[in-house]
Specification:
Elements lengths: L6 E3 L2 E9 L2 E8 L2 E6 L2 H14 L10 E2 L2 E2 L2
Antiparallel strand pairs: 1-2, 2-3, 3-4, 5-6
């Protein structure tokens, strides 16, 4: 995550964030589940591409739930 320029959130070791000029990317990790979010679609595509080059992963699209929590 650090190679992508993301910083670890001090209060939650599973949360990584990147911020620049009003743009935000956040990645939440839990074992083998990753939740990504951003207010910049292009930056999020870059992050996902870089992650997929390092890890075997699938993009499941918009989440309905994460770790048993409903997302709406």
């Amino acid at each position: 995550m650090k190679d992508l320029g993301l910083e670890n959130f001090i209060h939650d070791p599973c949360l990584y964030t990147w911020r620049k000029e009003g743009q935000v990317v956040a990645i939440l990790l839990y074992v083998d589940d990753i939740l990504t979010m951003s207010n910049n679609v292009e930056k999020l595509k870059v992050v996902k591409t870089r992650l997929s080059q390092v890890f075997e992963m699938k993009d499941l699209g918009e989440p309905d739930n994460f770790l048993g929590m409903k997302i709406s």
